[in-house]
Structure formats: C-alpha cells, structure tokens
C-alpha cells in the first residue's frame, strides 16, 4: 500500500545542510497499523509530509496506493491526496464551521452534490460517535470530540490510508484510549491502512502491528510490536 525506496530529504539551513530523513526504505501493507516512533527532531513529520506529497524527497521515491506521490504534481497530486486522510495533534478544524460543516468540507472540495454530502456526513457522524453534536462549533467540544471530527473529516472521501501525526499527543490518557479504540475499530471495519506518528510508546503498544524506530533521520529498527516490547 505504501513504499518508500531510499528516501532522503535534505533542507538547506544557515548552519549547512540538514538531513531530516536519511535513506529510508519501508513497505507498509494494506490494512496494517504501522507506527513510527522517535524523539522530537528524528524526522517523523518530514517523513509524513512526503507521504502526502507536501514535501518532495531530495532522493528516492514514495508510492502510496499505487501512485508515485513523489513524482506527481498539481491537480493529479490533489486527486491522489483524496486517497490519503490525515489527522493532527491540534486537530486543524475550521473554527467558524460546525461539526457538520467541518466534516462536509472535503466533500465540497471534491464536488460531491449536496444530498449525497448530507448522507455521507450523517454516516460519518455515526461512525465516530458524535450524534447529537452535529451543530456544535469546535470551541464547544472537548479535545476527544474535536479529534473525532478530525477523523470523520479525514475519512469523508473514503481514503485508503490514514496518516495520524501525534494525533493523541494533546489528549489525556483516557481520551487517548478512546480515540485509539475508534481507530482500531475503523481499521477492522474498513481495512484502512493507518500510519501512526508518535513519541508515545503506549500508543504504539496499544494498536500498532509493526513499528519503525527513527533516530537522526534514519530508521534504526523495524519490528512487530510484540518483539519490540518483549524485553523489559
Ligand atoms: P520530528 O517530526 O521527528 O520531530 P521533523 O521531521 O520535524 O522531526 O524534523 C527533522 C529535522 O529536520 C529537524 O532537525 C528539523 O529541524 C529539520 N527540519 C524539518 N523541517 C525543516 C525545514 N522546513 N527547514 C529546515 N529544517 C527542517
Ligand atoms: P486543547 O485540545 O488543548 O484544548 P484547542 O483545541 O483549544 O486545544 O486548540 C488547538 C489549537 O487551535 C491551538 O493551536 C489553538 O491556538 C487553536 N485554536 C483554538 N481555538 C481557536 C479559535 N477559536 N480560532 C482559531 N484557532 C483556535
């Protein structure tokens, strides 16, 4: 579903060249929940930004759902991005729109007709458990509810892949658990491939099948989660 082949990303800075991602190769299977863990500055965000085409690799190639995302541009890239949903640490909701309006937004961009949009938004609200909160604004929601809106919005156009960038890092442990349960449920129901970027071990331990450990731009280990946590 996702493959990175010898991907390197460098940035030019005053202090010289920064290698944010250093010759990374990865293959992620359809339906897999794949964790990427590492300290701040390890290169996780840069990696994710290359998965959705926000950054181009300096070297190597990135393929997502059969498309070489690192090569395509313009309207083709926008179309390819509809196959890739994303959720964020700070939710990135539209503050002037209600729950319904936020979830509807990507459908409007994709040109889905109004009646169809309404039906899809209703399904998504049910899927993430926000019935009764359709007309609330983000400022009226708890952190967990905001992330549920983020998830519903990310899934609106039926993506094949969901990228989660520190998606539970702003939430308390109990809320984190409920969001992870929801992601697990969606993975099982729809076979969605999920990439989880995090610095929190317990997030990986709870739902990931495999994990890659990043340090200084390199993947230093890839293993099934069971193996990584085998030794105390
Ligand atoms: P993480 O998400 O693991 O915290 P990042 O991918 O954000 O790591 O950053 C990896 C390295 O690349 C860091 O040293 C960071 O400062 C650098 N970096 C990231 N984006 C840029 C940029 N746009 N310009 C210059 N340096 C960057
Ligand atoms: P928390 O989940 O910690 O309560 P918030 O949801 O309040 O966090 O905020 C998440 C991010 O959105 C923050 O970066 C904050 O500055 C921004 N934000 C919060 N409220 C608004 C608003 N009404 N308009 C624009 N940005 C906002």
Strand content: 25-35%
Oligomer: single chain
Number of separate strands:
10
Helicity level, as a percent range?
25-40%
Contiguous low-pLDDT stretches (5 residues minimum) are: none
Largest sheet: 6 strands, mixed
What structural category characterises the helix and strand content?
alpha/beta
Ions and ligands = adenosine-5'-diphosphate
What is the overall pLDDT average?
95
Strand order of the largest sheet: 6-7-8-3-9-10
Number of helices: 8
**Bulk shape:** globular
- The gyration radius over C-alpha positions equals 18 Å
**Element string (H = helix, E = strand):** EEEHEEHEHHHEHEHEEH
N- and C-termini, Cα separation: 32 Å
Organism: Pallidibacillus pasinlerensis
Keywords: Amino-acid transport, ATP-binding, Cell membrane, Membrane, Nucleotide-binding, Translocase, Transport
GO molecular function, one term: ATP binding
Domain ABC transporter: 2-232
Any overview of this molecule?
The chain has 232 residues and is α/β, with parallel strands linked by helices. The chain is built from 8 helices and 10 strands. The strands form 2 sheets. It has a 6-stranded mixed beta sheet with strand order 6-7-8-3-9-10, sandwiched between helices. Strand 4 (59-64) and strand 5 (67-68) form a beta hairpin. The model has no long low-confidence stretch (mean pLDDT 95). One adenosine-5'-diphosphate binds next to strand 1, strand 2 and helix 1. GO terms for molecular function: ATP binding. Residues 2-232 form the ABC transporter domain.
């Amino acid at each position: 579903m996702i493959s990175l082949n010898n991907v390197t990303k460098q940035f030019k800075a005053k202090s010289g060249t920064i290698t944010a991602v250093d010759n990374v190769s990865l293959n992620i299977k359809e339906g897999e929940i794949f964790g990427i863990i590492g300290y701040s500055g390890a290169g996780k965000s840069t990696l994710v930004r290359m998965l959705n085409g926000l950054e181009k690799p300096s070297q190597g190639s990135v393929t997502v759902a059969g498309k070489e995302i690192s090569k395509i541009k313009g309207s083709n890239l926008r179309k390819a991005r509809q196959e890739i949903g994303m959720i964020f640490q700070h939710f990135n909701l539209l503050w002037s729109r209600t729950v319904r309006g936020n979830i509807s937004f990507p459908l409007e961009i994709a040109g889905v007709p109004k009646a169809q949009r309404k039906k899809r938004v209703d399904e998504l609200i049910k899927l993430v458990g926000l019935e009764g909160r359709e007309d609330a604004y983000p400022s009226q929601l708890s952190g967990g509810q905001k992330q549920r809106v983020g998830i519903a919005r990310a899934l609106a156009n039926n993506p094949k892949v969901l990228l989660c960038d520190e998606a539970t890092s702003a939430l308390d442990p109990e809320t984190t658990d409920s969001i992870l349960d929801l992601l697990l449920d969606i993975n099982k129901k729809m076979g969605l491939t999920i990439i989880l970027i995090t610095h929190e071990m317990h997030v990986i331990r709870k739902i990931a099948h495999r994990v890659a450990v990043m340090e200084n731009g390199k993947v230093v280990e890839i293993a099934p989660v069971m193996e990584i946590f085998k030794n105390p």
